[in-house]
Amino acid sequence: MVLSIRDLNLTVPMPDGPRQILRDVSLTVAAGETVGLVGESGSGKSTTARAVLRLVPSGAQTSGTVTVCGVEAGGVQEIRTRHAAMIFQDPRSSLNPVRRIGDSATERLVHVHGVSRAEAGRRLAELMAEAGLREPQRLMRKYPHQLSGGMLQRVVIAAALSTNPELLLADEATSALDVTTQAEVLALLRRLRRERDMAVLFITHDLLLAGAFCDRVYVMKDGSIVDEQPGRTVFVNPANPYTKALAEATPRLPERTKPAAGHPTGAAR
Amino acid sequence: MTAVAAVLTAAPRKRREWVYFLCLGILAVAVAAAVLAPWIMPYDPDATSFDAIYLPPGPAHWLGTDQLGRDLLSRIISGARSTLLGSIVLLALATALGVLIGLTAAWYRGWVDTLLARITDVMFAFPGLLFVIMIIAVFDSGTVTAVIGMGLAYAPVIAKFTRAIALEELARPYVDSYRLQGAGGLELSARYVLPNMVPTLLGYLVVLFGDGLMSLATLNFLGFGSQPPSSDWGLMVEEGRAGVIQGILGPALVPGLTIAIVVVATNVVGVRLSDKLAVRR
Q1: Which uninterrupted H or E stretch holds B276?
Q2: Which of A27, A108, A118, A146 is most buried, judged by most C-beta within 10 A?
Q3: What confidence tens digit (pLDDT) does each residue in A55-102 have?
Q4: Helix, strand counts (H, E) of chain A
Q5: In what order do the strands lie in the sheet with A71-72?
Q6: Do B176 and A111 touch (CB under 8 A)?
């Protein structure tokens, strides 16, 4: 198993007493497997992923075991910098706004892995090209505000992969992108996962998306995992009552949509 | 026409660009006067002349003379030096201290944050001017004491502001990336997070500059700061008071108006700068 979480509990002190954020969370992700973690806002799915990297809220108390590639989360720094990488929802704030993209995206290679600046830049450019970005050398000299969200998320993915992680934690990685870009980024993630035999923990609030993209899906509610199913069936045939409720809450388009008269899409037909 | 429609069809509010540029010009003139003072002063600012006491503005003395026959224009120009420099040093000291405290509180949170918050709250509850007068009572009156004291009094204001914007900035994911690399504490905050706060901080500091200038002038007016024969603007107002009783307004009015104009100009520029820089975020 690349990632294995067993009985993870996490409690955060609040002014009105301690609050339990995670309750006995257990999950596994194997090499080359994409596992979805679905739940509503505040269900604890992000906290679970962040706990793998020990990015826990200050003062939090944890119990249970988290191992990445057989390394217990005690050897924290090694997991953080070598075995796992995380990508976040908002690509715009995932890179330092006042630094050139090439600089902030290669920082990890240079500072932690001791790769030379030139070599790190070469490796990043290669990965950016692989991620479908043209003229990576030119893009690396730009600042984050000069690029679109989709392009930035590709840069962030390239930066995450530059250290060859065995595990990728994707926290709502496509939720801030428009539908077309989202499809492209998902296709990219799928291809990279296949080529590198990488394990992906894919966090989303979108059950339909998780079902389509993931091999296996865990459903979280109030800090506990309430359901686990293969991606194929989770949306089509939800067994668990809560999963069913989530599936039914997903908006659906009617069979045929009709564009409004005079609307640009109508003219395009 | 309904109210909503009226709002929608109204012409966009005209930005008063010229006010902004006028204020920018005023500040430029003030700074230029301070820098070039020795070369552009028509008279020696400290030279007294008993033949020329309380002269009204005229071709020889554009702004008139004071009770000792000193040329007011020359004194305003030479006073720009000590007045502006004092405010800059005051602000630099307050910024260094305030940013350090604010960043520390924002990064460490917990009891460090609480402790620093309490200390700044106490400072807030205490009038800044009174605090400085206390310091001056303990040490000695003089320009340096006044400036350092005011710098200490302004530090909590900047600390609070810095803490607030630092908390917002530290919540961004790129900070997590640095954490994952093993960076943390003040090093991370100062090296990577602070540069992102500079635009917001800068606009605020320009506004505070006008405020600091005013406070420093007040101290000088009260006689706690610069001492005669300094031509600090606040002190000039104080010395002009004697004339006001006799119905001669010039010597008090000229430095007073100068302070008012410069403070208003820094406020306009500072607020405008904050708006401009905020749009970029």
Answers
A1: helix B250-279
A2: A108
A3: 887 778 888 888 888 777 655 566 666 788 888 888 888 888 888 998
A4: 11, 10
A5: A17-29, A3-14, A61-68, A71-72
A6: no
Contact across the interface for B174 and A80, Cβ inside 8 Å: no
pTM given for the model: 0.75
Taking the Cβ of residue B196 and every Cβ of chain A, the question of whether any pair is shorter than 8 Å is answered with yes
Nearest CA in chain A to B194: A98
The residues pairing with A84 across neighbouring beta strands, listed in sequence order, are A167
For residue A267, what pLDDT band results from cuts at 50, 70 and 90?
Answer: very low
Q: What is the DSSP string of A118-136?
A: HHHHHHHHHHHHHTT-SSH
| β-bridge partners, B166 | none
The verdict on A76 touching B (C-beta cutoff 8 Å) is no
Fold classified for A3-97+165-252: Rossmann fold (3.40.50)
B residues 136-165 near A, CB within 8 Å? none
Q: Which residue of B has its CA nearest to A54?
A: B180
In a domain, B61, yes or no: yes
Residue A204, amino acid: T
Interface predicted TM-score of the whole assembly (ipTM), two decimals: 0.73
Pairing type for strands A167-171 and A199-204 reads parallel
Considering its fold, how many domains does chain B have in total?
Answer: 1
Average pLDDT over residues B151-163: 91
CATH number at residue B146: 1.10.3720.10
Give the whole-angstrom CA distance, residue B138 versus residue A66: 60
| 124-183 of A, contacting B, C-beta below 8 A | 145
Q: Does A215 touch chain B (CB under 8 A)?
A: no
Please calculate the CA angle B195-B198-B203 and round it to the nearest 5 degrees: 175
Q: Where are the domains of chain A?
A: 3-97+165-252
Distance CA(A44)–CA(A25), nearest Å, equals 10
Q: Domain residues for B123?
A: 52-279
Residue A117 CB neighbour total at 10 angstroms: 12
Q: Would you list the DSSP string of A32-79?
A: T-EEEEEE-TTSSHHHHHHHHTT-PPTT-EEEEEEEETTEETTSHHHI
CA distance A102 to chain B (A): 14
